[in-house]
Amino acid sequence: MKYDFAKVCDRTRTDCVKWDAAPAIFGRKDVIPMWVADMDFPVAPPIVEALKKRIGHEFYGYTLPGGAVIDSVVERMKRKFNWKIERDWVVLTPGVVPALHAAVKALTHPGDEIILQEPVYFPFFSAVTSNGCRISNNELKFIDGRYEMDYAGLENKFREQPGPLPAPNRVKGIIFCNPHNPIGRVWNKEEVTRMGEIVIRHGGTVISDEIHCEILFKGNTHTPFGAISEEFEQNCIVCMAPSKTFNLAGLEASSIIIPNKKLRDGFAAARMGILPEPNLFGLTAMEAAYRLGDEWLEQLLDYLQVNLDFAIAYFETRIPKIKPVRPEGTYLVWLDCRALGMDDTGLRSFMREKASVGLDDGFLFGAAGAGFQRMNIACPGSILKDALGRIEKAVNSL
Ligand SMILES: Cc1ncc(COP(=O)(O)O)c(C=O)c1O
Questions:
Q1: What is the DSSP code string of 94-159?
Q2: Is the CB of 251 under 6 A from ligand 1?
Q3: pTM of the model
Q4: Is the pLDDT of residue 165 over 60?
Q5: Domains of the chain
Q6: Pocket test for ligand 1, best of 183, 211, 251 (most atoms within 8 A of CB)
């Protein structure tokens, strides 16, 4: 391996949220932070080189995003997913979460509903509620250790609407998460199609958060929502970014793909004055990542696969009371801790105080996450091993 993902790097005292905020959040100095979706690996060298070059041009003024960076997004969608998009469809923002807020604002009037499928990435909740809308929860089904979407439930969400009313008070669409954080499913083409057909048939729009789409474990492929058909393309807002794949979250640059002109204009109006252009250096990093990052990414995925296989085997053989749900994508492992027999407060303090690991509480992702914890395995193997050993020791002491 050319890149050394096993090397432990000290990220403390660098204003790093994952490490520097951990003692305050988890209440202990010695906690191993395995929470926020950020990797403990240095960025791919071609990205660093591109940033250094840009810094060397000592003008950091207002920037007009466009040209080469947009081309790099268009080319990547074609090369990675065989999705042919046009340059005009690409809207750059400083993040996916603010784009979700703007998308909901564009699609709704206060009082409308947006469907979420919990347990799900919790910033989706405020993207809906801060726009005065209500969450309609079509909870995922957990059957024999595997999550599925509830298609009948989804149909009902639209059918339950109170008569043929004009806006407001209508179900306007769904925020779809693929790959799905925190449960790690990479919804396949059939599943995405089935979900999309229901939403579109009822006149809804799919806001598809695909930020984790390039972190895939062996045997999984990602299908962008808009790549399925022209009809799907015209009824979606697809949120992409290099930030998870290439560990660039602090540089704040995402690409939101909106093929439908009317939706794109609505999004532009909704973001006006509140959602600025992305950070200049984020754009440089995005282009370098998309054009030059693949060799690094291939090796990263191999490393994450080793970490995942190790963690799953560790739980199965040494901590069988905690059952990991094997993710198909994302570097987050959803742990079913219900057999420990603890309530949410008990499980939280057990992980923090007894095991001294900093995980995300499952209930944060919705009531369906009660009894679960989310563990970020994007770290050197030695750190992962240390964390698993701590959990094992704590469970054995019960
Ligand atoms: C599903 C999902 N969407 C969005 C984000 C964050 O996006 P951003 O940092 O671009 O706002 C995350 C971060 O973990 C995520 O998991």
A1: S-HHHHHHHHHHHH--TT-EEEE-SS--THHHHHHHTTT-EEEE-PPEEETTEEE--HHHHHHHHH
A2: no
A3: 0.97
A4: no
A5: 17-44+294-396 (3.90.1150.10), 63-292 (3.40.640.10)
A6: 211
